[in-house]
Each structure stands twice: as structure tokens, then as C-alpha cells.
Amino acid sequence: MTDHAIARGDLAVVRAAIQGTQRLAKETGTTVPKAITTGLADLAAHMDDATKSATPGPDDLGRAIRAAVAGGRSLTEDPEVLRLSALTQLRKQVDMDGLMKQIRLEREAALLKQHTPELVKMWRGIVAGISEDLTKAIAEIDERVSFTDIQSASALNPDRMALWAKARAALNIASRLTDTWKLLARSTGNAQVVASDEPLILADLTLADLDALGNRPTPDVLIRAGHALELATPAEFTERRARVAAERREDLHDRERATQQAIAEGRHPRRSNRLDPNAPSIEDPDALGRALAGRVGHNRIRPLVLDNWK
User: Fold this and answer.
1) Are 143 and 224 in contact, with CB atoms under 8 Å apart?
2) How far apart are CA 28 and CA 123, in angstroms?
3) pLDDT tier at 219 (50, 70, 90 boundaries)?
4) Cβ–Cβ < 8 Å for 160, 140
5) Within a 10 A sphere around the Cβ of 19, how many other Cβ atoms?
6) What is residue 148's DSSP assignment?
7) Cα(189)–Cα(181) distance, integer angstroms
8) Per-residue pLDDT for 5 more than 70?
9) Under a CB-based contact definition with an 8 Å cutoff, are residues 173 and 130 in contact?
10) Separation CA 107–CA 192 (nearest Å)
11) Among 166, 174, 173, which Cα is nearest to 217's?
12) pTM over 0.85
């Protein structure tokens, strides 16, 4: 793990990513990979010891000086006096407490980055359960019933209400999982997520799919549209996003090409005055002026002629 790789992550959300991971495991009855729990515990103990050793007490230096004098040792050569003197001077120049916290966050982010594959593997099991619960509910419950609106489910019979409740719980878990995935990606620098691309975390979609699904579709909407829930690794998400971005660029290029073709053929509104062969042109300002002067009194000026001046 390089310092550059760590620096790309947002350390402000490292703890939130850790807490989200732990909370998600507790809510779903799963277990955070041992490599992460053990690594975090060992790191905490190590950083506590390091912080303590870098924080001399107010009387430590004085006691070391007395001990050196009593032992007949030179104050400029006594190891403990030199160590405490250096630490005391360092703390005047550096925010040692803040630096230690920063180092701890960097090492926690590195640990999360190293074990992201195990986390995603664990979360894929959760997504499989979410997909199963939602698929069953969708098959049995009228699509007009919203899984997020209890009023719309009030007329369901007990069996279908049970399915509805499991579906609603599955959506809540899916929301927390997606939020935790984003925190993990942000804290480690593994991926960058914008709202328009967020559905790509849970499904492998095209630009046409995203356009058809609308703004921030929930997992049940994805399933109703025929898309399988496939939780991406950060690398897979980046690939999905890059492919959609390429499709967006190609779509924009096609639109621009179609617009230029329409302009060239006189079919575009910006050149629609060319449909009238008698319309005066900007290339003949005298004719244009005469046309304007002759028509002002009769309220016959065509606005599209004026577009030539733009």
C-alpha cells in the first residue's frame, strides 16, 4: 500500500465506513471478515502505545535529568534525557496528537482497501437475499402497491403483508448496504460515485437502461425492469461507469452530427428561414433593410429572418 494510494481516499469518512460495515453485519446476521476485525484491533493497540510513548508527562523530563545527574551521566549523552528532550521539542513544532490520529486513519483506510474483496464477497451474499425477498414479493403483490408506503399495503391479506414486510426490510438493508459501499469506496479511494451512476453499484446497466429507469431507482424497480442485482466490486463499478460514460459521449456525438446535418439541409430551426427562397439574406443587407422597412407597417416581419443577425 503506497502513500499515494492512501492519499486518494477521504480519511474523513474512514470511521463511518468501519462503523457502517459493523452495523450492516449486525443487522444482517453476517460476520465482518476476521482479517479486518483482528487488523483493526491490533492497529488500535499499536497506535495507543505509539501515542502514549510520544506523549511525555509534565514531570518526565525533570525526573530523567535528576536520574542522570544522580548516576553521574552527562545530560547531553543520557538516552532518556535525549529522548524526552526530543519529544518535548517535537511537540512544540508538530501537532503530535493530530498527527497520530491522521496516521491511524491512514492505516485503517489501507486495511479496508486491502480487504475490500472480502467485504464485497460478504455483501454479495446479502444482496442475494435482498433479491430473493424482493422477487417473491413482486411476483405475489400488485405492482401498484409500494414497498415503501404502508398505506398502499393496508388491503393486503396476512400472507402478502408478510411478503410486503420482508420486501420493505430488504429495501432498507439495500439502502444501508449501498451507503456503506460508497463510504468504503470514498474512504479508500477505490472508486468515485456520483448520483447519476449510483444504480451501477447494484446492477450492470447501459446508458439506455439508466435513462429508462429514471432518477435513483430502488432495487425493486431494477428487478421489475428485468435487471439482476449484481453488486460490483469497486473495479467493476469503475468499468461500468466508464462504459456508460463512453456511451454518453457517443450519444452526444450522434446528436451533434444529426444537428449539423439538419442545419446543412435547412431542416434545423436555426436555419428554417432558408425554407423560404424569397427571404432576404444577411449577405444582402440592402435587400434585408428594404424588406424590413416595407413590412413594419403591416406587422408582417418574420422573426426567423431576424435570426440572421444572431
Assistant:
1) yes
2) 10
3) very high
4) yes
5) 12
6) T
7) 12
8) no
9) yes
10) 20
11) 174
12) no
Element of type H or E holding 224: helix 219-224
Residue ranges covered by each domain of the chain? 34-114, 116-252, 269-309
> Contact at 8 Å (CB) between 272 and 266?
yes
Element (H, E) at 86: helix 79-93
Distance of alpha carbon 244 from alpha carbon 242, whole angstroms: 5
**Cβ-count burial 38-54 (b if 16+ within 10 Å, e if not):** ebbeeeeeebeeebeee
CA angle 122, 128, 134 (to 5 degrees): 140
Give how far Cα 275 sits from Cα of 228, 265, 293, Å. Answer: 50, 10, 22
User: What type of residue sits at position 72?
Assistant: G
Cα(254)–Cα(206) distance, rounded to whole angstroms? 17
Q: Tell me the pLDDT band of 91, cut-offs 50, 70 and 90.
A: confident
- Please classify residue 155 by burial: count the beta carbons closer than 10 Å to its beta carbon, then call 0-12 exposed, 13-18 middle and 19+ buried: exposed
Question: CB-hemisphere CA count at 13 Å for 58?
Answer: 0
CA dihedral 142, 145, 151, 153 (to 10 degrees): 40
